[in-house]
Design goal:
heterodimer, A: 10 strands, B: alpha/beta, D-Maltodextrin-Binding Protein, domain 2, five-stranded mixed sheet, three-stranded antiparallel sheet, 24 helices
């Protein structure tokens, strides 16, 4: 379980806040989507979970322990992270990219290899033809699958995903979204997923947290949010769109 | 020159060319390696400590702006040593800037996105550096090394000035002898070497690049890869091995003295007369004793030769009384040749434990020299005659003359002369300059063969400003005491060369482009002093 309690983050010594007094929980096994436009603080929030950014006030707990009391390197190795954009190491092969966290953790080469092959099969990139390639020899969608495989390598309980599909074309994005849903059912990970795409949020999220200018506007299932928008902002968010574009398939 | 003659000329010098190229590679390679071992860590340090960046890059940048020769001479004074060490240090300092700067730039340019990923998956700081930042910066770092090495090949040609060898030795000797072929023999291989070095580091960079799946396995490319990687290493190895072993077959003269065990190290300054005198002493010593002479010729000037002698890096060289008096001892001019010799002999003994032997006989004073045609036209006979028109004249002096108290500064005072323009020249280029009309007045050497061949006229020193410059061997007293035979042999040269003879010898080498050794042997044979006793 991940729990944020009155978390604020200021980058300029308190003059302005990227995130202000944020409290919510991520339940075990659920996929929570942080939804908001750019600059709303959703990525900052995500990075505070694995201490890439440290909160100015409030506490972030993972498994009941304050992250500020933990070794950041060890913490990060236990939390898979899929980065915005590419985030793969361009000088390493697919194989080396996927094996990097197990390597940092000192696994034997045999178990590293087995895990790598298992993961590449899982994301449907056969190891025999992909393991030795470099990131720039892959399509965008393939690269992001490797990103997911890398995040899953050490079998972490948590997965943080920072707009992983934002740079992909619509078709690829849709395919990957479906795959992620399948993966999630298979793996039973707790996932925090950041996006600015309403459709994606509704498709993927067990629950959705809507952020606006550093504040949490509302958190709940899509049904809660659609049926009972908590604020004017949330109401506007959904009514400015053509009704039906996001609800058809899911509700 | 006909092509086959040129070919023969090169073949004849091939062994030495090989040795000098090896030395050159050693100098460039070792200094680049040293600069890498300093510059890369410095670059890494600076990428992490922003506040140090300004001061350290500033200092390294300033080092880069010091003229190469000044740097060499400065290090010479600092280390009290001639030869390889100061050259290596100077080259290392020059190589530092491109390497450190490219390391810093390369590390900085790694995308923030990738570095965030490295941090985000849980790499420790040094892991981020070693596993991500440095590998991604490697191409830029290698490019810096490449720049440093190629520039190093060029600067290394100057190392010959302080006796460190390398291809610059041909260039130096060529300049001293006004011999274009010799200059090219050094300059062309140096340029080729720069290309080879550039190519080999380029190949190294290519070998460093990760192998792509699309490069077919077992193809020529994947076969070449390890070879490319080894190329610069091989170059440095070849250079170092050549340098340190100095294979016997390279020196024909060495095999001639298979039985010899003792060595006399003989130096000269960098102009023709010095080379002739040096070769003369060397041939005589080799003919009449069982010593082998190590010829450390063409050192870059009086202070370097004297410094080397005092520091026991060499055993003897030929010096001029006037130079010893005014440049080394900083004493005012003594016009009487006998008194001048007595004085330097006495003070050299007291101060440096060096002995002046019997002078060769000629007086190679400076001579303010003009074109013979001009002298006739303007009726110039003495230096005083120049006074009226000096403002409109362009003077070309050697760098040494321009500064020496017995050179231009003193001349200006004594004759109240102020030339319109004064330019510094390499001694041999100075004669070219006046012959081609680029300057009107030069400080020739009275015994220089080119005075006649270039149709020049030395003006009379009517106020007796220039001190006498009688040349004589200056030798370390401990050597003389240990091997009195050396002194006896060198005394044979006492008084046998007058001004006209020296001018003739210089003329043979400078104007007729004959081999120094050949001219010297011919002269010694004519004087019947070479093989009498043996």
């Amino acid at each position: 379980m991940i729990k944020l309690t009155h978390v604020s983050k200021s980058f300029d010594g308190g003059q302005s806040y990227a995130v202000k007094d944020l409290s919510f929980q991520v339940r075990k096994g659920e996929m929570l989507v942080l939804l908001g436009s750019s600059g709303c603080g959703k990525t900052t929030t995500l990075k505070m979970i694995n201490r890439l950014i440290e909160p100015t006030q409030g506490t972030v707990e993972v498994d009941g322990k304050d992250v500020m009391g933990r070794n950041p390197v060890e913490l990060r190795r236990q939390i898979g992270y899929v980065f915005q954009g590419i985030g793969l190491f361009p000088h390493m092969t697919v194989e080396q990219n996927v094996e990097i966290v197990p390597r940092l953790l000192g696994w034997s080469s045999r178990s590293k290899r087995e895990r790598m092959q298992e993961l590449l099969s899982l994301v449907e990139l056969p190891p025999e033809s992909f393991a030795k390639r470099f990131p720039d020899e892959l399509s965008g969608g393939q690269q992001q699958r490797i990103g997911v495989a890398r995040a899953l390598a050490a079998d972490p309980d948590y997965l943080l995903m920072d707009e992983p599909f934002g740079a992909l074309d619509a078709l690829t994005r849709e395919a990957l979204q479906q795959e992620l849903l399948t993966l999630k059912k298979q793996l039973k990970k707790t996932i925090v997923f950041v996006t600015h795409d309403l459709h994606e949020a509704l498709l993927l999220g067990d629950r959705i947290a809507i952020l606006h200018e550093g504040h949490l506007e509302q958190i709940g299932t899509k049904k809660d949010i659609l049926n009972a928008p908590a604020t004017q902002f949330v109401r506007d968010l959904f009514t400015t769109r053509e009704p039906g574009t996001f609800t058809l398939r899911d509700t | 020159m006909r092509l086959d003659a040129l070919f023969g000329y090169i073949v004849e010098r091939l062994p030495e060319l090989w040795l000098r190229t090896g030395e050159h590679l050693m100098l460039t390679g070792c200094s680049t390696l040293a600069a890498m071992s300093i510059g890369i860590p410095v670059g890494i340090l600076l990428s992490r400590t922003t506040w140090l960046r300004g001061p350290i890059m500033g200092v390294i940048g300033i080092l880069q702006t010091i003229p190469s020769l000044a740097m060499l001479v400065f290090l010479l004074a600092l280390l009290n040593k001639i030869g390889v060490l100061p050259a290596l240090i100077a080259l290392t300092l020059y190589a530092l800037l491109p390497i450190a700067r490219n390391t810093l730039t390369g590390l900085e340019e790694v995308s923030a996105e990738v570095m965030e990923a490295a941090e985000g998956i849980g790499m420790k700081e040094y892991q981020q550096l070693m596993m991500v930042r440095i590998p991604l910066a490697a191409p830029v770092i290698v490019a810096g090394i490449r720049t440093a090495a190629v520039v190093g090949v060029g600067i290394a040609t100057l190392s010959a000035f302080i006796g460190a060898g390398g291809l610059g030795q041909f260039i130096n000797r060529g300049l001293a002898l006004a011999n274009t072929k010799l200059i090219l023999l050094g300059a062309v291989p140096a340029a080729l070497l720069a290309l080879v070095v550039d190519f080999s580091i380029g190949a190294f960079e290519w070998g460093l690049r990760p192998e792509r799946k699309r490069d077919k396995k077992g193809s020529a490319q994947s076969f070449m890869r390890p070879l490319a990687f080894m190329l610069p290493v091989a170059l440095i190895l070849i250079g170092s091995v050549t340098y340190f072993t100095k294979p016997g077959w390279i020196f024909k003269s060495e095999t001639r003295f298979e039985t010899s065990h003792r060595i006399i190290r003989l130096a000269t300054k960098n102009f023709t007369e010095q080379l002739i005198l040096g070769e003369m002493m060397a041939q005589l010593i080799e003919a009449k004793t069982d010593f082998k002479v190590q010829r450390r010729f063409n050192l870059g000037g009086t202070m370097i030769c004297h410094g080397a002698l005092v520091n026991k890096e060499i055993d003897l060289y030929a010096e001029y009384t006037g130079t010893g008096l005014t440049v080394i001892l900083k004493h005012p001019v003594i016009a009487d040749p006998e008194k001048a010799l007595d004085y330097v002999t006495k003070v050299y003994h007291e101060r440096f434990n060096l002995q002046w032997l019997k002078p060769f006989g000629f007086n190679n004073s400076y001579a303010i020299t003009v074109r013979a045609a001009d002298a006739e036209k303007f009726r110039w006979n003495t230096i005083s005659d120049l006074q009226a028109s000096a403002q409109g004249l362009r003077a070309g002096f050697t760098a040494e003359f321009a500064e020496r108290p017995d050179g231009y500064p003193g001349l200006r005072q004594t004759y109240n002369l102020q030339f319109g323009e004064v330019r510094d020249f390499d001694p041999s280029l100075m004669y070219e300059a006046i012959a081609k009309g680029e300057v009107d007045v030069i400080c020739a050497f009275a015994t220089d063969g080119r005075i006649a061949s270039y149709h020049l006229k030395p003006l009379k020193d009517d106020r007796q400003f220039f001190p006498p410059y009688y040349a004589a061997p200056v030798i370390r007293e401990d050597i003389l005491k240990k091997y009195p035979k050396i002194g006896d042999v060198l005394e044979l040269l006492g008084g046998i060369i007058d001004d006209a003879t020296m001018q003739q010898l210089n003329f043979e080498v400078d104007a007729k482009k004959r081999q120094t050794a050949e001219v010297v042997t011919e002269f010694l044979n004519a004087k019947e002093i070479l093989y009498i006793e043996n």
